[in-house]
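Async update (no meeting this week)

Hi team, since we skipped the sync, here's where things stand on the single-chain job. The sequence we agreed to prioritize is pasted below, unchanged from the tracker. I ran it this morning and attached the output directly underneath so nobody has to dig for it. Comments welcome in thread, and please keep replies under the output.
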Amino acid sequence: MEPRLVGPGPYRATRLWNEIIELFRAGMPLRKHRCRFKSYERCFKASEAVECLHELLGSNQNFGPEVTRDQTVKLLKKFLKNHVIEDIKGRWGKEDFEDDGRLYRFPPSSPLKSYPKKPSCGKEVIKFPDWNEARAGPSQEHIPVKSVAMNSEMWYKRHSIAIGEVPACKLVFRRELTQTNIEEIWKSMTLSRLQKVLGLDSLDEVLDTKLVNSKHIVQNVYNVNKQGIVTLEDKSKELPHWILSAMKCLVNWPSCSDLKQPTYSGFERDVFKTIVDYFSQMKEPLLTFNFFDIFVSVLGLLQKPSKAVEALQISCLLLPPENRKRLQLLVRMMARISLNQDLPRLSESVRTRTLMVQAFSRCILCSKDEIDLDELLAAKLVSFLMDNYQEILSVPSALKSSIEDHVVHLQRVQIKYAGSDSDAALPPPSFCHQITSGEFEYQRATGSQEPLAALLEEIVRDKEISVKDKKKKLKQFQKSYPEVYRVRFPSPETEAMVFPEKTKQKPPILMWALKKPFQPFHRTRSFRM
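Output:
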């Protein structure tokens, strides 16, 4: 049986569990063994199982070569607990598997797990701003967005009034977005992008969108320092100073700026143990229980690193700001310690990088309900985080620009022509509000007339079109916007000034037309026959 890549989607952990069991049952050699003067058919030693499963996990693209032998033993313990394997006497249910010579076998029944039926959390409809809802009071802070100055040339090009005929149109005047409106837009567009990157038809099976706090997304994007680290408004949620000092000590070893130089051997190991103990006592992992499934789904994209990086960038924006900041500081510390050649080894048995993954993977990612592949999945994710932490834990610039442009688009006064689509350069809003004919006429008369006046002035000053075409355009504009036209041309005289009359010149006198003065007819004597 060939291993296959388990991509993102619902129940990925369960699918991986079943995949590994099928591969293990198909690849584990079964032989005849003797124990206490008795022979047992189709069984295997514990050490043989560890060897086979470790090789299988290391060559599987869903897990990779960083899986350790110790992690393999822990997985076999869970196999014994869940009756994937049993000892030669048929006993199972405890995690007392050891890497030794005891004999085990496969049970006759299939140990594959069925897919759990999650309680429906209901689809949350992301509400777009309702322009009629009451204003939610003054905003405490303003989200910086790109300002777009619309000059007459841009309006001219966009609406093409001076190029073609002017169809019937109306002004759509939108009021200012509130802070709540902007946060809702950020949540909606962020989740939409995450769904697209993961390639899923819906996020419902991997994420309860009701648990996503739109304020957290906005704070994680804009409340950052020069290094891109989140700044917290509530200082009580910051890491303790002594933990930050310990982390800096190991990162900058042997130049400890916050601590005096140690005077005893093993000081660096004591500092490391202090950091591990602090993060291990947290009640919830940094990636939170609520987002476990979404991060496990992202692991299915690791064969496409650029896609995986973008998916993790967006997923980490959903975290509470205090969790995101701790994750940024912790993963950066882990990566730098792994590369610090001057730091003595923190363990005699494992490499420093492997130690970092083993020590902190569970405090970064784990499930609220015990899942059998928790440790392997967390180790895979943490390894990828360490290798790409600078990109993953930064704000995705493309997403930020897209949302800011959309916010500006929603705030802009627009001209809507009958039968034409909205601005194709930006995504059209998926909402509208019906108004009465009286309200429309009022908006048409009292709305922003400045852009229309600029357009009219463009037509007047355009020297590229003929006088005939210019008169035609002005007549069309006067019919569509009589109020604006009347302001520019209050009298026929002002209108006539646009087309000054040319003085008629008399044709020149031709030389051939000059003749002798007319001579009167004189009667002459006639000749008679």
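Quick observations from my side:
The radius of gyration is 39 Å.
The first strand starts at residue 31 and ends at 35.
Reply here if anything looks off.
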